[in-house]
Amino acid sequence: MINQPHVGIIGAGYWGKHLVRVYHELGVLKRICDSNEVLLEKFKALHPGVETCLAFNDLLLEEDIRAVAIATPAETHFSLAREALLAGKHVFVEKPLVLDESEAESLIAMAKERNLILMVGHLLQYHPVFHRLNELASTGELGRINYIYSHRLNLGKIRREENILWSFAPHDISMILSLAGEEPESVIATGANYLHRKIADVTTTHLEFASGLRAHIFVSWLHPFKEQKLVVVGNRKMAVFDDTQPWEEKLLLYSHQIRWENYMPVVW
Fold first, then answer.
1. CA 14 from chain center: how many Å?
2. Which of 258, 71, 224 is nearest to 151 (CA)?
3. Is the peptide bond before 73 cis (omega within 30 degrees of 0)?
4. Which helix (H) or strand (E) holds 154?
């Protein structure tokens, strides 16, 4: 009989509480670590048998905890992930992995050296609708993909640790890279600060790929309504993944094509 792997979670607040619920349902949650004692007491009552602690080191010293899930503010991700890897734990980190490229490279190298898993929580990679969209793209049903654009807009949740690009856009970048199947040759991003002089509230990003594919990302937490839309335009069909719609309307296909007649483009 294979021993059930145990997971420890650090950060059980805004998003961490979802990890607590899921890992508990899977039967692998061993310990929750958070600086909020009141919150920990609530989880102990909700999940009897699950241990809690205030110090991250207490979690790392648990030999039967093989993996650590980190759901703390982004600015703490590097130091916590580094400590966990040094302690020989597999690591899951909510996006963004870190706020500096060199720190990401350092963590990746550490994980490889120790033969440990380092995973970022790009949850939309596992969304059934995105799976279907990726399938449509990879099998050629959409034809040659000409461009992709995404909107991820809402009024809040406003961050003070990282800007809107780091907070919202990783989801869209992750999906676009999967659909493209290649790395971009160039990336241009521009933003505007309205609430804080050093933290952008609105950004637009433009990615260019060697294949000719172009992608655009617009993210904002200063928007009057919620919008989470990814549009993929191929030369055979166009697809729209709208995650704010009811399940049966989340993925829509359009058979629009542009054909040339008498030297003029005509929409079919």
1. 15
2. 224
3. no
4. strand 145-155
Angle, nearest 10°, between helix axes 101-113 and 77-86? 10
Taking a C-beta distance cutoff of 8 angstroms, is the pair 30, 53 a contact? no
Four-way CATH pick for 125-267: 1.10.3660.10, 3.40.50.720, 3.90.1170.50, 3.30.360.10? 3.30.360.10
Which residue in this structure is represented by tokens 């637009």? 204
Query: What is the C-alpha to C-alpha distance for residues 2 and 162, in angstroms, rounded to an integer?
Result: 41
- Per-residue pLDDT reduced to its tens digit, 30-73: 999 999 999 999 999 999 889 999 999 999 999 999 999 999 99
Our CA dihedral for 191, 193, 199, 200, rounded to 10 degrees, sits at: -30
- DSSP letter at 34 equals -
In sequence order, what DSSP letters do the residues of 91-149 get, joined into one string? EEEPSSS-SSHHHHHHHHHHHHHTT--EEE--GGGG-HHHHHHHHHHHTTTT-SEEEEE
> Any idea how long the chain is?
268
Q: How far apart are CA 81 and CA 101, in angstroms?
A: 14
pLDDT in tens, 188-207: 999 999 999 889 999 999 99
Residue 71 CA to residue 63 CA, distance in Å, equals 21
Cα–Cα distance for residue pair 50/59, rounded to 1 Å: 12
**pTM, to two decimals:** 0.89
**How far is CA 194 from each of CA 25, 185, 190, rounded to the nearest angstrom?**
41, 30, 14
**For the structural domain made of 6-121, what CATH number should be given?**
3.40.50.720
